[in-house]
């Protein structure tokens, strides 16, 4: 019973906290992408893909975002695991986004998340909002 009550409270807080959350406005005449991952090492092939698409599509290439969520989100704060992914992402016009729910659940202090990484409160909602704006979405 206690677990049911706590789950209900969590769900209500989650819903209330995301009512005003909206994904950024985007140009739907361009090809926009979001890739959801749970592992920092997957940034390398994702960024390479973004670079290839940018060359292939030219002016039709729009926004490209990597959304990280899940148990390994704390790896964002590990300089050795992150390597130069933030710099590579910036050069490739890729935005790295961290899920706030995952940061909270796995007790990752937001202050330790490197600058250059955007934090959204609800990564799942953010992904759906971008899909409604025409983003192509892939989950790894």
Automatic annotation (TrEMBL):
Residues 1-23 form the signal peptide. Keywords: Signal. This is Sulfur reduction protein DsrE. It comes from Winogradskyella marina.
């Amino acid at each position: 019973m206690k677990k049911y009550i706590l789950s209900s409270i969590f769900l209500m807080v989650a819903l209330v906290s995301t009512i005003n959350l909206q994904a950024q406005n985007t140009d739907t005449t361009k090809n926009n992408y979001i890739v959801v991952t749970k592992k920092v090492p997957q940034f390398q092939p994702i960024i390479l893909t973004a670079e290839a698409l940018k060359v292939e599509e030219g002016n039709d290439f729009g926004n490209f975002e990597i959304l990280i969520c899940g148990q390994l989100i704390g790896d964002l704060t590990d300089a050795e695991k992150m390597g130069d992914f933030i710099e590579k992402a910036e050069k490739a016009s890729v935005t790295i986004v961290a899920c706030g729910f995952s940061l909270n659940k796995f007790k990752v202090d937001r202050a330790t998340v490197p600058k250059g990484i955007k934090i959204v409160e609800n990564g799942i909602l953010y992904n759906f909002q971008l899909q409604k704006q025409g983003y192509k979405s892939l989950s790894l």
